[in-house]
Amino acid sequence: MGMLKEFKDFAMKGNVVDLAVAVIIGGAFGKIVSSFVKDVIMPPIGLLLGGVNFTELKYELKPEQMNDAGEAVAAVTINYGLFFQNVVDFIIVAFVIFLAIKAINASKKKEEAAPAPPPAPSKSEVLLEEIRDLLKK
């Protein structure tokens, strides 16, 4: 029972929960970026390059063949078009993360740069100032 409680305490720590949320949001963000690259960025680039669909770019090492049973054996290919699309996905995700971290660091610098207001004088200091002012009169 002690190990179960220990695991529960570990799993419910703020860092673990924050990490789980980050992974889930990151996965969803990755899908959005992949769709953005595949459906928005790559078609115009393909059009500019003569109607090329990058997902179909590949180098065929061995063509499709029929085996002895008459079944088709898939071709062996290097799918460099898909690789290129994944590289573009990665660059976009890395750039967005860079911008987010830059914004976070800028906000932290602003917090550090703002000087703390001077502490208010204590009651005894206020009383001593009043006595001093009365003695001056």
Automatic annotation (TrEMBL):
Family from the record: Belongs to the MscL family.
Transmembrane domains' residue ranges: 16-37, 82-101
Keywords: Cell membrane, Ion channel, Ion transport, Membrane, Transmembrane, Transmembrane helix, Transport
Protein's name according to its UniProt entry: Large-conductance mechanosensitive channel
Subcellular compartments: Cell membrane
Family matches, as Pfam families: MscL
Gene source species: Algoriphagus sediminis
Keyword rRNA-binding: no
Self-association state and partner proteins as the record states: Homopentamer.
UniProt keyword annotation of Mitochondrion present: no
Topology relative to the membrane: Multi-pass membrane protein
Entry function: Channel that opens in response to stretch forces in the membrane lipid bilayer. May participate in the regulation of osmotic pressure changes within the cell.
Annotated signal sequence range: none
Source domain of life: Bacteria
